[in-house]
Design goal:
It is built from 1 helix and 11 strands, in the order αβββββββββββ. By secondary structure, the protein is mainly β.
């Protein structure tokens, strides 16, 4: 009889789970990282093959700063023509590891390339996490150990893209 109760409890638990943790789920607040939403405004460029979120530890002041050693997070691809996209550095991870510390450049980037490229010239920035709502300067992100920030949001306005870092179009 106990085995049937266990199987029933597991079945109920499995059915009630929706397959993953959303950025505001209970339990993430004790994890190290951040998440938020990306809002897209305007018309998506038709020749885009990939849209991703990137996080760099150091500012992108020269083309050389756009490198694999400085890259600490690369998200999975954002679906084409999205209006809103929720992400977090734990579940939306394609590459990297966000640990506690300061980060200086979080951006949404796009490419026309068919495969992942780490050449700066292959990517262009369509949105950045800003230091304030009134300028287009990259914002500093401080990640604290065992704390999860749910409010790291980015707006991508295709009619008003931010200044490109060195080495881009």
């Amino acid at each position: 009889m106990k085995i049937y109760k266990l199987i029933l409890a597991l079945a109920i638990f499995t059915i009630s789970c929706d397959g993953g943790l959303a950025p505001n789920d209970t339990g993430m607040e004790n994890m190290t990282g951040f998440g938020g939403s990306i809002s897209f405004m305007g018309e998506w460029p038709s020749d885009i093959t990939q849209t991703n979120i990137v996080l760099f530890k150091d500012p992108i002041l020269t083309e050389a700063d756009f490198n694999i050693d400085n890259l600490k997070y690369l998200s999975t691809s954002i679906p084409f023509n999205s209006l809103d996209y929720s992400y977090n550095t734990i579940d939306s991870l394609l590459f990297g590891n966000v640990t506690s510390g300061k980060y200086f450049y979080l951006a949404v980037i796009q490419t026309k390339e068919k495969s992942i490229s780490f050449d700066r010239e292959d990517w262009f920035v369509v949105g950045i996490y800003e230091s304030t709502d009134e300028n287009s300067e990259p914002g500093e992100i401080i990640v604290e150990e065992n704390k999860f920030n749910f409010e790291v949001n980015i707006i991508c306005d295709f009619n008003n893209i931010p200044p490109q870092p060195p080495g881009g179009e």
